[in-house]
Design brief:
209 residues, alpha+beta, 5 strands, elongated
Length: 209
């Protein structure tokens, strides 16, 4: 029988709760596995949204064994390529859990089946594909609208957010930048900015003052 300290047992129990919560949030696309690295021959302690076909009691993976042998192995290894036994492509993230002595005792692993999303991507690519050309160039957008939206997207990206999630103070700074760049002089500029930010035109005019 595997001997565990009370601390190690508590960490394993709490990790299973974390895994359950993540699995429920990202079901059914993300497999979540709890590895007990104190018992490498039967390391899989729990598996949620089973996509790989493994079961509780299966042995540790190569990464798990590497952590057991070397505590200096990186604790968070995110978004690395992997594959299931049937060849499906997987994006994996593995988080090692250490005890108070700095030794790896467990790992939380998340495996996303990319084949599902690759199928979505294929359908979307087909849907947005444009093959025909019109006899005359036609647009429903005023000139310069793309430049305004691009500038807004770049501003939001610098803040690691989206245009519609910008705070009021950030929107005020953004509009000042658009004004300084002369983009608010373009036709229907205020309407375009308001629509892209998800606010009223009155708000945009207020930010511009």
């Amino acid at each position: 029988m595997i001997q565990r300290t009370p601390e190690q047992q508590l960490l394993l129990e709490q990790l299973q709760q974390v895994a359950d919560g993540i699995a429920q949030t990202f079901a059914p696309f993300c497999e979540v596995v709890v590895h007990d690295l104190l018992n490498p021959s039967h390391a899989v302690l729990a598996i949620h949204n089973n996509l790989s076909g493994r079961e509780a009691g299966h042995p540790a993976t190569e990464l798990g064994l590497a952590r057991i042998q070397d505590a200096s192995v990186e604790q968070v290894i995110a978004n690395y390529p992997n594959s299931f036994s049937d060849g499906r492509q997987v994006k994996s993230t593995s988080i090692g859990i250490k005890d108070a002595d700095g030794q790896y005792i467990a790992a939380l692993c998340m495996n996303i089946d990319l084949s599902v999303f690759q199928g979505f991507q294929g359908m979307l690519n087909q849907f947005v594909d444009i093959q025909m050309t019109a006899p005359a160039k036609e647009t429903f957008d005023p000139m310069g609208a793309d430049a305004i939206r691009d500038r807004i997207n770049q501003f939001a990206a610098r803040l690691a957010t989206t245009p519609r999630a910008l705070k009021a103070e950030d929107r005020r700074t953004l509009v000042k930048e658009l004004k300084a760049a002369g983009l608010l002089e373009l036709r229907r500029a205020m309407e375009i900015v308001a629509a892209h930010l998800g606010v009223s035109r009155a708000s945009v005019y207020g930010y511009a003052k």
